[in-house]
Amino acid sequence: MTRDDLFNINAGIVRDLITGVAETCPKAFILIISNPVNSTVPIAAEVLKNAGVFDPKHLFGVTTLDVVRAETFVQDITGERNPSKTIIPVVGGHSGETIVPLFSQAKPTVNIPADKLGPLVKLGVQFGGDEVVQAKGGAGSATLSMAYAGYRFTESVIKAAKGEKGIVEPSYVYLPGVSGGDAIAKEIGVDFFSVPIELGPTGAENAQNVLSSLSSEEKQLLEACKTGLEPSIDKGVEFVAKSPETK
Fold first, then answer.
1. What's the half-sphere exposure (Cβ side, CA atoms, 13 Å) at 225?
2. Helix, strand or coil for residue 201?
3. pTM of structure
4. With pLDDT > 70 as the criterion, what percentage of the chain qualifies?
5. Which listed residue (74, 94, 125, 229) is catalytic?
6. Residue from 119, 87, 92 nearest 104 by CA
7. Residue of 114, 92, 116 lying closest to 102 (CA atoms)
């Protein structure tokens, strides 16, 4: 199933669900995990805008699976068996070349040989989902890892909402509506983008700019990411604009 197939199936579902949220619980924290996230989050934002209840701090695209893959597959190089001990920011979008893992900013620092970096980025993180589909012979996609990623992000949001401090998770958000995000949006030229987000009782409380110290390889990945993101965002916005139910 292609991303276009996913869009055709999920775009209307997300639009209708968010219409219900806008009517019944407009102040809820909304976590979008339905693919293609690059488009479905803009769909949700447009529906909420049309209803007059859009709060950018309450809308999250769940990109945690990309982080989980980055933290997990780098173990083959570092030998660390506990993924929670390695923090790797992943920015951009949530499909293919729009996913940009920042291994240069890993904590603790990891030394990845040049011949292993490319496959780690492409096969392990950017196209890890395709690898799973191929391994299952087209009969399924990532399930347990996606479930874990959804659980991890949801738990972080809940803990932060209850007042726990210092919780940061990358998320695909509407940057101009989040503190610190407007400058990032102007720098990269798109409004929807995943960066590390400081979570709190009000939702997305601060967007962290981690783009100032990219490696040369990551700068190239970021350019490809921006090229791929813009049409996906536009596709979601246009879908809502053409939906008579939301006009």
1. 29
2. coil
3. 0.93
4. 91
5. 94
6. 87
7. 92
